[in-house]
Every structure is written in C-alpha cells, then in structure tokens.
Amino acid sequence: MTNKEFFKKNCNHFHIFSMAIFLILAIFYWWKSGQYSEYFFKNTLWVVILWGLLVGWITGDFIYHSRNK
After folding, report:
1. 46 burial class (0-12, 13-18, 19+ CB within 10 angstroms)?
2. pLDDT of residue 23
3. Whether the predicted pLDDT of 68 surpasses 80
4. Residue 60 burial (CB < 10 Å; 0-12/13-18/19+)?
5. Tens of pLDDT along 41-56?
6. Alpha-carbon dihedral of residues 54, 59, 60, 66, nearest 10 degrees?
7. Torsion angle defined by CA atoms of residues 38, 39, 42 and 48, in that order, rounded to the nearest 10 degrees
8. In angstroms, what CA-CA distances link 9 with 19, 26, 64, 67?
9. Taking a C-beta distance cutoff of 8 angstroms, is the pair 19, 10 a contact?
10. Would the pLDDT of 9 be above 80?
C-alpha cells in the first residue's frame, strides 16, 4: 500500500477538521498555562502540538466511524 492509498483510506474531512480544532486548543492551552510550567509535557510547545494532533486524529476517527454505523 502506498502513502496515497493509505491517506485516501484513513484520512477524511472529519480527521482534518478535528485535528485543526485540537491543534488550536493545544496551542491555546500551552499559551495560557503550559509555557510557564515546570513539567516537560506542559512547557514544551512541540510536545503539546503533537498531543493535540494525536487527540484530534483519534476524535475524528471516532466521529467518522460513529456516523458510518
């Protein structure tokens, strides 16, 4: 399976929309409370962004599969 086939099968507008929303929420969270924290997972912007994208992907997948049932 090529990358194009993989993304065509596993990525749709639910995934993209929820990843964008959670990316914005993750950056807002970091800006308001995480940047001055002493914890690594809160004060590192790239970790917070990756976490937001991962949660957005999973949420989009849940929404997509719940609408198809």
Report:
1. exposed
2. 93
3. no
4. buried
5. 677 888 889 999 999 9
6. 150
7. 130
8. 17, 26, 12, 16
9. no
10. no
Three-point CA angle 51, 41, 35, nearest 5°: 105
3-state secondary structure 9-28: HHCCHHHHHHHHHHHHHHHH
- Residue 35: how many CA atoms within 13 Å on its side-chain side? 8
For 61, the token pair is: 């997948």
Residue type, 58: I
Structure tokens at 3: 């990358």
Q: Rounded to two decimals, what is the model's pTM?
A: 0.77
